Amino acid sequence: MKRRQFLQASGAGLALASTGCATIGGSAKPQVVVVGGGYGGATAAKYVRLWSGGGIDVTLIEPNASFISCPLSNLVLGGSKQLADVTIGYDALARHGVRIVRDSVQSIAAEKRTVTLAGGQTIAYDRLIVSPGIDFLWDQLPGMQKPGAQERILHAWKAGAQTTALRAQLEAMPDGGVYAMTIPAAPYRCPPGPYERACQVAHYFSQRKPKSKVLILDGNDDVVSKGALFKKIWQDRYGSIIEYRRGFKTVDIDASGRAAISELDDRVQADVLNVIPPQRAGAIAVQSGLANASGRWCTVDFVTFESTQAKNIHILGDAILAAPLMPKSAHMANQHAKVCAAAVVDLLNGRAPEPKPMLTNTCYSFVSDKDVIHVASVHAYDAEKKTLLVVPGSGGLSSAANALEGEYAMSWARNIWADTLG
Question: Is the pTM of this model over 0.85?
Answer without folding.
Answer: yes
